[in-house]
Design a protein that fits this description.
About 80% of the residues lie in helices and about 0% in strands. It is mostly helical. The protein is globular, with a radius of gyration of 20 Å.
């Protein structure tokens, strides 16, 4: 909130230098994974055990959905007014977020053995030791990160699909992103009201396979309306996959280690994202967006075959986790 306010103030005074702008955005980006970590680690304090799976399903898609909605909102405000107005909207949303957090009343985190004085690097080391020491969880997380690498490219591929494959106007970027987000929101809601979640690994593998098929379909479809339907379907299975992975983490990771575990997850995911963007940009330039999506689709189908054979931590979310 403070950094966004500073950036907004600079723009109100006529802007700032490009290096200063990059520095502010860089520092602001540092704090974003902390929000994800805190929300994941605090989830069990906010809901009871019976509603934990439903809450995890919704929380898993909230950040991805918020990125899409923020992109649409900021583009709309900048097109209608200016970048300064878009920053003003951002600051307002941060103020509302702080107000909501203040009213939640999250209790104290579980007491830690180190008395809460561990440094961030120590937190990461402890979380990493737990992750590596739990081999079935480590195997699942390796598949999870590889899926992240492929699916993060979707947000770069959508504009390329519109420009290169469909050759349509930029308004179709918003339409396709909206289709994607509608699929995500609808699925997250349906998963959240589902009372039983069975066959976690099989469901996860099917969701990965379907995202791969959607990628392959998007590479060959030339109608914007069919592409919109494909991205709607992609959003459905994207949310399904993210929901089940988040529910699995919430179920099997002990409460006292969750903060450190999610720190490792979000830090690694934050590092994978720029690599994913670099890969999709390079491959699309050297080959083509269509070939890049084909590679992504085939890669996801291979991952689906790997995921179904992973050692089980749990078969159904109603079961007790298997000991490492």
């Amino acid at each position: 909130l403070c950094l966004s306010t500073v950036l907004f103030a600079f723009f109100l005074q006529g802007g700032t230098s490009f290096p200063a702008l990059c520095a502010l955005v860089f520092v602001l980006s540092i704090f974003m994974p902390l929000v994800d970590d805190a929300s994941s680690a605090a989830l069990e304090q906010l809901v009871d055990e019976e509603r934990l799976a439903a809450a995890a399903a919704v929380q898993a898609t909230v950040f991805e959905l918020s990125n899409i909605l923020a992109a649409v909102l900021s583009t709309t405000v900048m097109a209608a007014y200016s970048a300064t107005h878009a920053l003003g909207v951002t600051v307002t949303l941060y103020v509302l977020g702080v107000a909501f957090l203040a009213r939640m009343g999250v209790g104290q985190a579980p007491e830690r053995k180190d008395g809460g004085k561990g440094a961030y690097v120590a937190e990461l080391k402890e979380g990493f030791r737990y992750l590596v020491g739990t081999r079935p969880l480590f195997a699942f997380v390796c598949v999870y990160f590889t899926v992240v690498f492929f699916l993060q490219q979707t947000f770069i591929l959508i504009p390329l699909i519109v420009k290169v494959l469909l050759k349509e106007s930029v308004s179709w970027v918003g339409i396709l992103e909206t289709s994607f987000s509608v699929g995500m929101v609808t699925t997250a809601f349906l998963v959240s009201i589902q009372t039983r979640h069975r066959h976690v690994y099989r469901t996860y593998s099917i969701a990965i396979a379907m995202t791969g098929l959607c990628m392959l379909s998007a590479a060959v479809v030339v109608s914007p309306y069919l592409t919109s339907l494909v991205l709607l379907t992609l959003g459905v299975f994207f949310a399904r996959m993210w929901s089940f992975s988040s529910m699995l983490f919430q179920k099997v990771v002990p409460e006292e280690i969750k903060g450190r575990f999610f720190s490792v997850i979000s830090t690694a995911a934050a590092g994978i994202t720029p690599l994913s963007y670099f890969a999709v940009g390079t491959l699309s330039d050297l080959l083509s967006p269509r070939i890049t999506m084909t590679i992504d689709g085939v890669g996801l189908l291979i991952l689906a075959a790997v995921a179904i054979r992973l050692p089980r931590l749990i078969e159904h979310l109603d079961d007790k986790p298997v000991a490492p």
